[in-house]
Amino acid sequence: MSEQAVVTHEAKMQSLKSLTQAVYILYALSYFTGITALVGIIINYVKQDEAAGTWLESHFRWQIRTFWFGLLWAVIGAVTAFILISFAVLFANFCWIIYRIVKGWLNLNDNKAMLC
Predict the structure, then answer these.
(1) Helical (H) or strand (E) element with 1
(2) Using a CB cutoff of 8 Å and minimum separation of 24, what contacts does 101-109 make?
(3) pLDDT band, residue 116 (cuts 50/70/90)
(4) Rounded to an integer, what is the distance from CA 31 to the centroid of its chain?
(5) Four-point Cα dihedral 101, 107, 108, 111, nearest 10
(6) 80 vs 114: CA distance, rounded Å
(7) What percent of the chain lies above the pLDDT cut of 70?
(8) Rg, C-alpha atoms of the chain
(9) Which pTM was predicted?
(10) Is 68 helix (H, G, I), strand (E, B) or coil?
(11) How far is CA 70 from each of CA 16, 17, 87, rounded to the nearest angstrom?
(12) Torsion of CA 20, 29, 107, 19, to 10 degrees
């Protein structure tokens, strides 16, 4: 591989890593703003092909699953409000999402792929 190609590849990887970090931030901010998780999931789907075949692909998959399963459990929590278990479901979902954001972010900072 030529030196120019290596530099270009490294720049692309750094850009994708920064973008992945931004999505983790957007997911975390969604607890305060509500809408930023939607921006994050859109970024994941738009840039997913660029991450294919790299160690960052696993982070994109991790983030996408975090969004959809978090949304699923939020809906289940809202629907179960009438039988008084919604607090437990929503609290468990909150903890699970925080765990996934923190674990993903730590692995990203260590340049490790996620084991999904």
Answers:
(1) none
(2) 101/24, 101/27, 101/28, 101/66, 104/24, 104/59, 104/62, 104/63, 104/66, 105/21, 105/24, 107/59, 108/17, 108/20, 108/21, 108/24, 108/59
(3) low
(4) 14
(5) -170
(6) 32
(7) 96
(8) 16
(9) 0.91
(10) helix
(11) 24, 23, 15
(12) 10
Span 68-94, pLDDT tens digits: 999 999 999 999 988 889 999 999 999
Tell me how many helices (H) and strands (E) the chain has: 4, 0
Q: In this model, does residue 40 exceed pLDDT 80?
A: yes
Nearest by Cα to 21 from 38, 44, 52: 44
Maximum C-alpha span of the chain: 64
Percentage of the residues of the chain whose pLDDT score is greater than 90: 84
Is pLDDT larger for residue 38 or for residue 3? Answer: 38
Single-letter residue type at 82? F
